[in-house]
């Protein structure tokens, strides 16, 4: 029977596994309560763990395994702070127990890796993403964890990181797949993972592929998930997500509707997804029909308002009115402490007025006045009936309490004014308002202190700034244009031409030797000038000298 229960546990048949464990409780098998607690948590019966321990007179701190499983049950019940304290206790007990067994430090860390991963997960749930990210990163980099804990750490790291780096997240998930497999398939050594955990990893992989626009790979994984997890709705939701990404919203709506009819017990999430897809695709009637089929939330105020808005957008005013009437009838017969009947009736009356159904709206307001005695409902009743029957409206108007300060008001003079200002504590007549307006003095402008730059001392401001600092340089009084060098040789003619005077051609031979020596000196000076290449300003200064 013990072997049979473990086989059921690996197959994911937790209810059958729990039944076998409960039959074995009288046999006094060691660590039976540890496995029973794990089966209850994975079977969605975490609330029964505490009762089981009290019935068997067992404390959660009797072993670190039982403390860990009890902490998991607290997580399922959203008691995260208590779960964190129990996980810390489990880690302390585990370290003491394993050290007494003379295990090495690395072996102890591997044995307690599930507790470390679960602590990081609790930090993630408590809104401490930085601490959780550091814990996941440390577990992944050190690689001192069993295969199941390592896989959970990688998946939670990818989930926490989100879509900030899709390529890096896909590479991290690639470490979990079978090496020889063509597509994405989890390694064979991960049998300890529950079906729900394996399904979550595949779902995250598909979502990342959709963000990376790798539609073929996402489509291949979704095709295999339907057979692997036949009892789950997650493959159907992922198939709808792929179709939406391919701009096939109509096909996605059709598939979700078919599976909702096939699995009515799990239809809620399918119908909600169908309503979301239809509303985003511009199919308001399909979205409204999907919400109507969810009995748990069908008559909640938010759901009613959404359905009415969708039917209004689709032009189905009669259908929207029938939804409001159905909600009023349901809340009238509901035996609840927090009734929403007055809210529904108030909104229904406003809806009917908006669509020209004054008689129905007046009937609703009359019911509100009789049942709740609401002043707002009475005012709405007067304004609604006045459109149909003025005499009847005046009769209802007499039930309103008179407002103080309205007897001395002259209606004719009030119509001639632009309106009175609202006065707190007392109501003023028109004449008093006019007098108050005359007495009002013009508001004085508040002088603000000048704001000085950082480090500026108003007592010692220094020299005043140049008043011409905003003008262009050539428009300032201090501007002096640059002087041109008049001694520069004027070259005329085409480029490269050499111009010589006529009298140089007929020069005597006696003067040629002296002129050649001078030209050599000039050439040497030009070569030196070319080698040094001074700046324009320095050369200009030399020329002035």
Automatic annotation (TrEMBL):
Subcellular location: Cytoplasm; Endoplasmic reticulum
Cross-referenced InterPro entries: Signal_recog_part_SRP72_RNA-bd, SRP72, TPR-like_helical_dom_sf
Residue ranges of every copy of the Signal recognition particle SRP72 subunit RNA-binding domain listed in the record: 433-481
Signal peptide: none
Biased composition (Basic residues): 440-452
Positions with biased composition (Basic and acidic residues): 466-478
Family annotation (Gene3D superfamilies): Tetratricopeptide repeat domain (1.25.40.10)
Protein name: Signal recognition particle subunit SRP72
Species of origin: Manihot esculenta
